[in-house]
Design goal:
Helices cover about 45% and strands about 15% of the residues. It is α/β, with parallel strands linked by helices. It has a seven-stranded mixed beta sheet, sandwiched between helices. The structure holds adenosine-5'-triphosphate (ATP) and magnesium ion (MG).
Amino acid sequence: MPIISILIPKGGTGKTMTAVNLAAALCKRGCKVLLVDMDPQANMSQALGLEDKDGEHFLNELEKVRNEMPANIANAIVTTACGLAIVPASRALSRTDYELVGTYKGSEVLKRLLEPVQYKYDFVFIDCPSAWNQLTQNAAVASDFVLMPMQAEMLPEKGLDSFYYNLEDFRKENDTIPVRADILGIIFTKFDEKKKINRAIAKKLSDEYGGKVFNTRIRWSAQLVNAQVAGLDIFSFNPKSNGAKDYDSLAAEFLGRFQHR
Ligand SMILES: Nc1ncnc2c1ncn2[C@@H]1O[C@H](COP(=O)(O)OP(=O)(O)OP(=O)(O)O)[C@@H](O)[C@H]1O
Ligand SMILES: [Mg+2]
């Protein structure tokens, strides 16, 4: 089933927030979702109450694939207190990023690790770092689609532009590696209807990218931040909050996009 990277080469846009809470909203709607933390910051793992040592198994499995040894990602999957399946990261994933650079077919390691389990899930979400590094390239190569959470603020196009540029450059340099990574959609996060700049940029990008922009906007919400701090998804933390409503609407719209494919 589809593998979707939450990817935009820009920091702090709400990628991790969206990975966790969209996955939780989809779970509530009966979907089976696997989360993969591909960021050495391990924010997604922390946001679901996990510790650095929980991410070590993932490193071991990536290392096995890198060395052409039999690997099994099931060894690295943890089920969190709120019932989400996640492959957590550890800070040492930054070492893997460095090691993959010198590996033959180093950008296909994650794809090879996910392939055998992909069919067990309705969706696999990969939370990416904000840099275009080997870990991000691994996520792109493994992905059918890309979801781009972004703030409707100054120069958001820069993030979009650099994604297209990075991907096209990668495709040219690696013409034996097929990379799909179609943009499934752009999601506005930390949105404040009262801010003129938010309204103006949302309109500009909606005009430019048309159907690619999700109608659902994730409003700025302290409850979402508090849930992250508590190590819970928003539905486990406060199911009546605006954050829960927004991510549930996003899940409905997200599923609609797959029905129309
Ligand atoms: N809707 C929201 N309302 C309020 N704060 C938010 C919202 N979404 C995200 N944040 C906050 O913004 C910050 C960045 O969010 P997040 O970590 O999800 O972004 P990111 O794109 O994953 O960042 P990075 O590039 O570092 O991985 C965090 O402190 C998070 O709590
Ligand atoms: Mg993040």
